[in-house]
Amino acid sequence: MVSALRTFWSQSFFLPPPPLTEQNLPDQSGKVFLITGANSGVGYEVSRILYAHNAKVYVGARSESKGKEAIASMEKQHPESKGKLEFLSLDLSDLSTIKASVQDFLQREEKLHWLNNNAGVMTPPPGSKGAQGIDLSYQTNILGPFLLTKLLLPILKRTAEAEPTSNGAVRVSWASSLALFVESPPGGVKWKTQNQEVTLDDSIGLRGIYSSSKAANFLLANEFAKRFGEADGVLHNTYNPGNLRTNLTRHMGAIASWLASVLLLHPTILGAYTELYAGLSPDLKLADNQGAFIAPWGRQISVRQDVQDEVSKEGGNAEKLFDWCDRVTGKFA
Predict the structure, then answer these.
(1) Which residue of 133, 157, 178, 252 is surrounded by the most CB atoms within 10 Å?
(2) CA pair distance 136, 142, nearest whole angstrom
(3) What is the dihedral of CA 140, 149, 221, 43, to 10 degrees?
């Protein structure tokens, strides 16, 4: 309990200033980025900043109208930009659509410098399911990003090979949360047997499911790093963007949402700075920082020891989770 409170405090209050902001971010001309959930919240701010610094940004979103509205807003805010904004239809809650989205991207693009798995859901209504009948949080926060990342590995590798001095500049980042530290089950995720198959336990309550999905993203980032990272020249990491005023809390009750906003939540732009650090900071190197966890507003920290242990353990949850995701998403790859 004391450790959880200490962690909550250290990632919520009196935080050091962000080392990377829109004021000191270098020019991003020639770079290509794909940001999921980019039509609102932190994803919008990250995309806007990258576009303002002349990058080509793919705005990944489910709704074409909302995605294009976001693009129009960014263009209006930064008329001087020499970058480009492209809408990419992307629904992480429906595994059957993701390959087509990737094929659309690959038809338009020959390189990808940063895949930011920013999109996610937080405590949706009880019983919510994705298109394949899997718990919505597990499907949107874990399985969808897993399949997207797996399908984009070849272009990420080619981009890194074309820039041999990049030393980890080509990256995949995964959205985690403070919930990993204070609410996820021992080892990060919990398993159950259903229809004679081992699967993630969806009977642990909304907060348990959400925190497990955020721990799962840390485990997957590390397993991708272990299997592909250095061989492909791609740096994989995870971040807690911070406790922010975004629409991620839209499923909270009105009173809880108001109290959180007043007492705990920070401006969205600060979360964007956390993500920019994960995706672009030169402090993070290929060999030294694989699987790193980035805390607000841009600093590397250690995660809970029982979760970290699952990364290196033979047959641990990182390996087990990767194989489960591979099995569930296999027919959609």
Answers:
(1) 178
(2) 10
(3) -60
Order of strands, sheet of 84-89, starting from the edge strand that comes earlier in the sequence: 84-89, 56-61, 32-36, 114-117, 171-175, 235-239, 293-295, 299-301
∠ at Cα 180 (174, 181), nearest 5°? Answer: 135
How high is the pLDDT of residue 249? Answer: 47
Instruction: Residue 236: give its domain's CATH number.
Output: 3.40.50.720
Tokens of 34: 């794909």
- Specify whether the CB–CB gap between 175 and 239 falls below 8 A: yes
Domain range enclosing 144: 2-332
Please report where in the chains the tokens 């940004």 appear, as a residue: 57
Give residue 189's pLDDT. Answer: 99
> What's this model's pTM, rounded to 2 decimal places?
0.93
For residue 218, which amino acid is it?
A: F
- Residue 59, number of CB atoms within 10 A of its CB: 27
Q: Which residues are catalytic?
A: 176, 210, 214
Residue 247 makes CB contacts below 8 A (sequence gap 6+) with: 40, 41
Are residues 202 and 266 in contact, defined by beta-carbon separation less than 8 angstroms? no
Do 88 and 63 touch, CB atoms closer than 8 A? Answer: no
Of 252, 236, 242, the C-alpha closest to 170 is: 236
CA pair distance 92, 60, nearest whole angstrom: 10
Amino acid at 331: K
Q: 3-state SS string over 198-257?
A: EEECCCCHHHHHHHHHHHHHHHHHHHHHHHHHHHHCCEEEEECCCCECCHHHCCCCHHHH
* Residue 14 confidence (pLDDT): 72
Which residues have CB under 8 Å from 193's CB, separation 6+? 199
The two three-digit tokens of residue 133, written as one number = 């009948």
Contacts of 117 (CB under 8 A, 6+ apart): 36, 145, 148, 149, 172, 173, 174, 175, 217
HSE (side-chain half, CA atoms, 13 Å) at 23:
5
